[in-house]
Amino acid sequence: MKHIFQKANGLIWLLVTVVVFFIDIISKFIIHHTLSYGESIRLCDFFAITYARNTGAAFSILEGQRWLLAIVAIVISLFIIYMMYKNGRNKKLENFSLALILGGALGNLFDRLYHGFVVDFLDFDLGFWRYPTFNIADCAICIGIFLFILSSFKNRKGDKS
């Protein structure tokens, strides 16, 4: 019976990863096929949908290093899968956070391999401050990292008691 619950729990994390991946890919597909590169649609004073391309990592770090970034994403993805397998069903919040990170990493990896760049389109501009354009995968990765850090504090607190 325990084995069945572990398999079901693994399927939940797989489902989270797949949902993040497909939402990201579909959103990028829509942007890539409906907007011209650089085109922007302002939705309110501080937010627009802007078609941008990133050939680097976050904040365009390592720009033009397509294959290096792809290899790093593959290694990180494999490590995340190993961590989720090792965690089993014991660390639900940590596994959820890892599933978000994995879905985002795979979404950006797909873009990098398919297009040679990552499609970004979420554009926040407050006039005095503009955040670099990003995508759904980036959101999932950031939320996943935040939850992973939160889970590490939760696990540390549980170890002390």
Write the layout of secondary structure elements.
Elements: H1 2-34, E1 40-44, E2 47-54, H2 66-87, H3 92-115, E3 118-124, H4 136-160
Antiparallel strand pairs: 1-2, 2-3
Helix pairs in contact: 1-3, 2-3, 3-4
The main β sheet shows up as: 3 strands, antiparallel
Question: Strand portion, in percent?
Answer: 5-15%
- General shape: globular
Helix fraction by DSSP (H/I, runs of at least 4): 55-70%
> Roughly how many Å apart are the termini?
29 Å
Q: What is the H-and-E element order? A: HEEHHEH
Integer tally of domains: 1
What is the number of strand segments? 3
Mean residue pLDDT: 88
- What structural category arises from helix and sheet content? alpha+beta
**Contiguous uncertain segments of 5+ residues:** none
Indicate the radius of gyration in whole angstroms: 18 Å
Descriptive account of the structure:
This protein is of the alpha+beta class and 161 residues long. 65% of the residues lie in helices and 12% in strands. The chain has 4 helices and 3 strands, in the order αββααβα. It has a 3-stranded antiparallel β-sheet. The longest helix has 33 residues, at 2-34. It starts with a helix and ends with a helix.
Short recap of the structure:
This protein is of the alpha+beta class and 161 residues long. It has helices spanning 2-34, 66-87, 92-115, 136-160; strands spanning 40-44, 47-54, 118-124.
